[in-house]
Specification:
Layout (H helix, E strand, L loop, with lengths): L3 H21 L2 E3 L1 H11 L1 H22 L5 H65 L5 H35 L8 E3 L12 H5 L7 H20 L6 H66 L4 H36 L9
Parallel strand pairs: 1-2
Helix pairs in contact: 2-4, 3-4, 4-5, 4-7, 4-9, 7-8, 8-9
């Protein structure tokens, strides 16, 4: 017989199981979807988008007001343009942040796998050292060294395991996801090839970078002030001050453009270096795979021990992880170049 108390307990149990199931459901992400989610609803982009809407509304109001003077209209137009540039720049900065956070979490997961394999090899080496000591063909120092290596790699494994949830939590916050959201990260795709030339990325920076756009707007406003003061009814001193302000604004813009151009050049070179690093990592992985194949062949022929194959397997895993790190480094370099140039060269910040 089912009593009211039994029915209540049944309902509570069902609710508890539903909640537990919901908590175990992980949000599955790719690198592209993570960036898209951040650009669609992340806090920084949301704020920049709201500021643009506010500037657009103010510009419409100023244009509709027949009493608006030219300086007021110019300022409203510049604020609107600056807000649009800021939104685009914010998207690139957010993309850079999310790409970095995604890859950091992904690498941490790979580091756990690698450290687990290394610790397993260390345990086997320790067993061998202990057996050799018992057979009096090794010393206690050999055993101590094997134990130290195991302790070190075990600690690195524990550190990586502790770091992973922290990195995922940081990524979740950037995406605007609730605290405690579980994330499952797919393998990142291969980074795109950089097709844009350095000259192309350096051209027109004052129209794409928020800081340069602001300086350019300041120069335009200063030029307008000179134009308005250049007449026979404005004091000469006012005109001179306006020209001085214009000259200062021009120098400030020139210096800022030069510095930004240098930043783009450095970021461009970093991408080239990262690409070379990927090529080298792939070559080293090929060498490690060849060594592993040879070790397995020797084991099959009876001329190598199983531990030698295990060692080659760990080295191959290390080379695989090095390729991952190099590829991730290229992604990060591309994202940094995009933020520096105001041009999305990752193909993700759409």
């Amino acid at each position: 017989m089912t009593t009211p108390t039994t029915r209540i307990l049944t309902v509570l149990l069902a609710l508890g199981l539903t909640t537990a199931a919901a908590q175990t459901d992980a949000t599955k992400l790719t690198l592209a979807s993570a960036v898209s989610r951040a650009l669609a609803g992340g806090p920084d982009v949301t704020t920049a988008r709201a500021n643009l809407q506010k500037a657009q509304a103010n510009l419409r109001a100023v244009r509709a007001d027949p009493t608006s003077i030219i300086t007021t209209l110019t300022q409203a137009e510049q604020d609107n343009a600056a807000a649009a540039v800021t939104l685009d720049g914010t998207k690139l900065n957010v993309a850079q942040t999310v790409i970095g956070q995604y890859l950091a979490a992904y690498e941490a997961n790979g580091r756990i796998d690698l450290n687990s394999a290394q610790a397993a090899l260390d345990r086997r080496n320790l067993q061998i050292a202990q057996a050799r000591l018992a057979a009096k063909v090794a010393t206690q120092l050999d055993v101590n060294r094997a134990q130290t290596s195991l302790n070190s790699d075990t600690q690195e494994l524990a550190d990586a395991q502790a770091q992973l949830p922290v990195l995922k939590s940081q990524l979740a916050r950037s995406l605007g996801l609730p605290t405690g959201t579980a994330l499952t990260l797919a393998d990142p795709p291969a980074p795109p090839k950089l097709d844009a030339s350095l000259a192309t990325l350096q051209a027109g920076l004052e129209k794409r970078l928020p800081s340069l756009s602001q300086a350019s707007n300041g120069l335009s406003l200063a030029a307008l002030q000179v134009k308005l003061a250049d007449n026979d009814y404005t004091p000469t001193r006012t005109l001179e001050d306006a020209r001085t302000a214009q000259a200062n604004a021009q120098r400030g813009l020139d210096d800022a453009v030069k510095a930004a151009g240098t930043g783009v050049r450095d970021a461009y070179r970093a991408v080239q270096n990262a690409q070379e690093g990927v090529d080298i990592a792939h070559q080293q992985r090929t060498n490690a795979q060849t060594t592993l194949s040879q070790a397995r062949a020797r084991l099959k022929a009876g001329t190598a021990a199983a531990v030698e194959v295990q060692q080659a397997e760990v080295q191959a895993a290390q080379s695989d992880f090095a390729v991952t790190q190099a590829s991730d480094g290229l992604w990060k370099a591309l994202a940094a170049l995009g933020a520096a140039s105001g041009v999305d060269v990752t193909g993700l910040a759409k």
